[in-house]
Amino acid sequence: MKNCHLLHVCCAPDLAISYLSGARGDIFFYNPNIHPKAEYEKRYAEVIKIAALFKMNVLKVPYNPDLFFKLTKGLQNEPEGGTRCEICIRMRLEKTMEYAKENGYKSVSTTLTASPKKNVAMIVKIGKELEKKYGVEFLPNVYRKSPLYNDAQKLIRKMGIYRQNYCGCIFSIRNSVIVATQETKTVKSGVEV
Q1: Which of 5, 56, 80, 120 is within CB 3.0–4.6 Å of 51 for a Cys-Cys bond?
Q2: Does 5-188 carry CATH code 3.30.465.10?
Q3: Which among 2, 6, 1 has a CA at the least distance from the CA of 137?
């Protein structure tokens, strides 16, 4: 059935686990939060590889980081998972829902729920609010709970798929560097991480 389901995709590793867990539909790679542009292009290229393997259609979506920076202005020092992240997730899901409504899709889900670092309750809450606004069903699939999670990780390694070490925005780069530095210091001091 054409235009049945629209799958918001954040990255190739999360697409792999989501697909193996049953996710289908057209891929909507809308992630203006990813910075710098070279990182965005790298993640997009990896999504194309996984999509080709699974024979999934990837929709062309413009990269617009200015919107992310406008919406999160003044929130640079927010902790990961805080207000800035909530705004970012809402921005991405809202654009997905808007596109779904305009193009006749019946439902939407997101691979954001595959990440063990994301707040699934927050994602589902936002999705359900947007469901009411746009009249497109939001499917709250929690892909990371799949028994095929380890199979997806093996597939990613076998294909040589790039695994990013930060969520995507410039602020999460800073936080991942801080965490990596703290972990290195802890290991060097002989304390288990």
Answers
A1: 56
A2: no
A3: 6
DSSP 144: G
Q: What is the pLDDT of residues 127-155, one digit of tens each?
A: 999 999 999 999 998 888 778 888 999 99
167 among the known binding-site residues? no
Q: Any known ligand binding at 11?
A: yes
3-state secondary structure of 40: helix
4 annotated binding-site participant: no
* Sheet containing 26-28, strands listed edge to edge, beginning at the edge strand earlier in sequence: 58-59, 26-28, 5-8, 107-110, 137-138
138 phi/psi in degrees, rounded to 5: -100, 120
Backbone angles phi, psi at 3, to 5 degrees: 55, 40
Q: How far apart are CA 96 and CA 28, in angstroms?
A: 7
Q: Domain boundaries in the chain?
A: 5-188
Question: How far is 78 from 83, CA to CA, in rounded Å?
Answer: 7
